[in-house]
Amino acid sequence: MANRKTSRKILRPLGLLLTAGLLATACGSDSGPAASTAENTEAEAEPASDSKTIAVLSPDYSAQPAAKTAVDAFIAEAESRGHVATIVDTNTDNAAMNAEITTAVSQDVDAIVVAFGTPQEFGEGLASALEAEVPVFGLDTGGEADGILVNVTTQAEFLGETSAQALVDVLDEGSQVAMITFDAFDPVRLRGVAAQALFEANGIEVVEYIQGDPADSTGFAKATIGDLLVKYPEGELDAVWAGWDATALGAFQATVEGDRTEILITGVDGQDFAIAEVEAGTNWIATVRQDWPEIATVSMDLIEGFFGGTTPPESTVFVDAILVTADS
Q1: I need a labelling partner for 189 at 20 to 30 A (CA). Which of 43, 90, 212, 245 fits?
Q2: Strand order in the sheet with 176-181
Q3: What is the per-residue pLDDT across 268-307, written as a single tens digit (0 to 9) for each?
Q4: What is the DSSP string of 149-197?
Q5: Distance from C-alpha of 216 to C-alpha of 250, rounded to nearest angstrom
Q6: Segments forming the whole domain that contains residue 61
Q7: Residue 246 domain-assigned?
Q8: Cβ neighbours around 32 below 10 Å, total
Q9: What is the pLDDT of residues 181-238, one digit of tens each?
């Protein structure tokens, strides 16, 4: 992931606000929380006696729609239970997470949640939290790392296989597929590995295996697939598998603007913009919805359980995902 100059963005508090779309569809959204209810406002005014202060830290909050959806859902869940939650966004800078974890420790927070990012690069910060006995929880981070008690996420192989199967079901043997993945982020790497294996097992040729750009997911994919439309004339490229919806969006835009909608698109995350195109019957035929509200609920259950004396039973807890097609 490209590093940028760190811009430390602190947003407080967000959790009383939850989009109607998130409530209605239990899926992602580009937009943040919208309106608070009287019940939630009252909860904020009168926090529970066992209220905890939770620092949520993420390098991807602004850059990735899925990360924003997940974090907003978590903060909403935390504050609905009477806790205080804040978000610090390092704007795609993984290395800056170390300093932010250390800062959160110095602020005497009760718990830290690292959301997305590559936790293997958070070693110094996690060590400081461990020394100070501040528990750290993962919210869809890029795998396991020493110092993180538990990571709540969706099984990456399921996401890759399910999104690829949607293409296998409609493509003929010998079809040609381009893939956009990002191997530096382990969950997306695993999605890509699983998808590629399924394609090859079904006689579908992967003609391009492209490393995407999480710092500019949509723009990069749009430009890259636009170039491929020239390289592969009609009849020589049948589909684009994208490892996450913000990238699938760029691929979709390129096929629409290039009048190449015979090329099928699939994505992962279940963002609102993805579901809208799938429902409309476009050439974006599927996405796999990660259940961010449930991930948020499970994460808060584990955090409250920890403070109640229960250690998380596993280092990773998986939450089910759902394939979304025009039929479903």
Answers
A1: 90
A2: 205-211, 176-181, 239-242, 264-266, 284-290, 321-325
A3: 999 999 999 999 999 999 999 999 999 999 999 999 999 9
A4: S-EEE--HHHHHHHHHHHHHTTSPTT-EEEEEE-TTSHHHHHHHHHHHH
A5: 10
A6: 9-153+293-318
A7: yes
A8: 17
A9: 999 999 999 999 999 999 999 999 999 999 999 989 999 999 999 999 999 999 999 9
